[in-house]
């Protein structure tokens, strides 16, 4: 096991996970939060920008997963590194963007006064 490969696969899986919502939202013609919106990460980017950003994420993911070391998703170490990368980013994004899309019920309940 090479720790450098594990880090690359962790980050690569995070990029792969991040590509999905941008490509899907863009392909559906919907605006979506993106790094080029105003304010960054909070405002909505156009569907075209999201498709381009998603594909850039996909290219980076491919580079990190397929060109660094020998990534074998059947190998427990590689699968664990990639799985943890995807899980870590998914949890981070769920907390970050849940407040914009109604998915962060913990914050919504805290902000709503009791009846």
Describe the structure.
The chain has 115 residues and is mainly alpha-helical. The chain has one domain (3-111). 68% of the residues lie in helices and 3% in strands. The protein is built from four helices and two strands. The protein has helices spanning 3-27, 47-66, 76-101, 105-111; strands at 32-33, 44-45. Strands 1-2 form a two-stranded antiparallel sheet. α1 packs antiparallel against α2 (47-66). The chain is globular, with a radius of gyration of 17 Å. The termini are far apart. Residues 108-114 have low confidence and may be disordered.
Q: Mean pLDDT, as a whole number? A: 88
- Strand order in the sheet with the most strands: 1-2
Instruction: Supply the number of helical segments.
Output: 4
Question: What about the largest sheet?
Answer: 2 strands, antiparallel
Quick description:
The protein is mainly alpha-helical. It contains 4 helices and 2 strands, in the order H-E-E-H-H-H. It has one domain (3-111).
Helix and strand topology:
Blueprint: H1 3-27, E1 32-33, E2 44-45, H2 47-66, H3 76-101, H4 105-111
Antiparallel strand pairs: 1-2
Question: Descriptors for this entry?
Answer:
single chain; 115 residues; two-stranded antiparallel ribbon; 4 helices; 68% helix; disordered C terminus
């Amino acid at each position: 096991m090479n720790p450098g490969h594990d880090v690359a696969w962790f980050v690569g899986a995070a990029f792969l996970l991040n590509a999905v919502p941008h490509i899907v939202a863009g392909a559906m013609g919907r605006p979506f939060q993106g790094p080029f919106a105003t304010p960054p990460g909070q405002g909505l980017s156009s569907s075209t920008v999201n498709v381009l950003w998603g594909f850039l994420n996909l290219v980076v993911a491919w580079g990190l997963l397929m060109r660094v070391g020998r990534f074998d998703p059947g190998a427990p170490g590689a699968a664990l590194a990639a799985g943890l990368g995807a899980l870590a980013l998914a949890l981070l994004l769920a907390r970050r963007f849940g407040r914009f899309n109604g998915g962060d019920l913990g914050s919504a309940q805290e902000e709503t006064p009791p009846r």
